[in-house]
Description:
Layout: H1 10-22, E1 28-32, H2 39-51, H3 66-73, E2 79-82, H4 93-103, E3 113-117, H5 125-136, E4 142-148, H6 156-160, E5 163-166, H7 172-181, H8 186-196, H9 200-206, H10 209-228, H11 233-236, H12 240-262, H13 275-282, H14 287-305, H15 310-321
Parallel strand pairs: 1-4, 1-5, 2-3, 3-4
Helix pairs in contact: 2-3, 4-5, 7-8, 8-9, 12-13, 12-14, 14-15
Amino acid sequence: MPFSDVVGHSAVVAGFRQQMMAGTVGHAHLLLGPDGVGKAFLARQMAQALLCRQPAGDGDACGRCPSCRSVAKGQHPDLRVIQVEEDATTITIEQVRELQRWLSMTPFHDGRKVALLAEAETMQEPSANALLKTLEEPPPTAVLLITAVHEGRLLPTLVSRCARWACGPLPADALREALIARGVEPGRARAIVRRADGRLGRAVSLCSPEVWARQQHWLDQWHTAVAEGALEPAFVTRPRAELEEGLELAAAWYHDLLAVQTGLDLEQLVYPDQVERLRAEAAAWPTDRLLDAVEQVYATRALLQQRVNARTAVAALIARLAPA
């Protein structure tokens, strides 16, 4: 799986390959960007390039040597992946300490040990401080590839010890081509891209009819909750990440209402299959209230990302959006 398998992120790939060719790869790299844009996959490609035994002259992995095959299978002894464990919400200090112990060991092959630490923003201060110690005094053979949504959620001193790589949302054309390459019919791919918000992971998941239907069901529940001005019971037990994604769906709906009100090209809608419903609802919303709705939905999503009480935040939002 060489860098040619990466969708988008051409500037990041080019910059990292240049470091590989120059032999100037640092000991810590921070990949920053929204969930679902492919940060973890890109980090694995970086790990493969770092551990390849027969690297290409252009800074890429060969994709064929035993080391590359082991990375692709998730079985390389000098690659360790640290992520939030099942039924947990954070990367724990115990996980970081185990990583430190592992990094201090002698590599099995070729002089490098590579650690991929995903969702670094979930770390509490003790875990972050423990990781910072490793970044300040890294073992000479260690390379850390860290992913996070935004550097503002990390310790500034931790961020300062890393080379930063910006992994933004993917262009619509790149997403559409990636889906078509996976066998998705072009018209269906266009519809999926509208809802994917530049995120390959979300686009791939939306290829599933079950996921598509679940999103529609969430929107239906949202409309009911706002119309009644009361917290929909189904929202109470939803995982925080699902609430965050749902608020993005709601924000896109209000954007579409604004687009319909202002006469924008319907091809730009996120929900073009619901244009009649959008027109009917847009007629009932004053423009200033729609603008406020978009702002409030995004503000509430930001609160959820700061780990505030999700039920309280969503209930307050619904109360504000409810008809007077």
